[in-house]
Fold this sequence. Notes:
Oligomer: single chain
Radius of gyration: 16 Å
Amino acid sequence: MTLPILTPTDIASQVASLETACTIIQQGGVIVCATDTGYLLGTDGLNPDAVRKIYQIKGRSFDKPIHLVVADVEIAKTLAEFTPETEGIFRRLLPGPLTLILKKTPLVPEILVSGLSTIGLRMPEGEWLLELARRAGTPITATSANQSGNASPFTAQAAIRELGDSVKHVELIVDHGRTPHSTPSTLLDLTQSPPSILREGPVTRAMLSAILA
């Protein structure tokens, strides 16, 4: 099987890869691309049928929620409840290797959050993925490009390996090399006061304490 892999190396190839990926996302297809903390399986996060494909490709239980990549805070406000304090934290900490857990709005499909009242939102460092979300006009699923239970991939080749036979259901792989961080993003729950760290990653407890103090 010949895998559809693009490796953007200059402005022209960056634009071409964005155009191709955007078309796939808008049509409910699935891509693999890099965040700052690993490679993700990306599709239109507001399309329930597209989200279902992600669960099927991963062999992921439907009771495990999937997070979203957003292009900016204005899009985030349509997906989650924001207070002035929440917005301030969002703007101070993102883009970065961090996922914020917030109360969701009705716009978020139930299949994405497994019946929970919360949603995880990401704005990774890396302009390609943020530009893709802008062009596609929709948040993009942010779950690791692997079979459920397999290792998180930090290169495109690792994603291909960890997806196994399911990679045949991916329409495009964008190879941006090794990700800046080789650990999943930090999870910060903003539905609690004070905010609670659910998983420590590249943004450490000490870093958050200094920022949120």
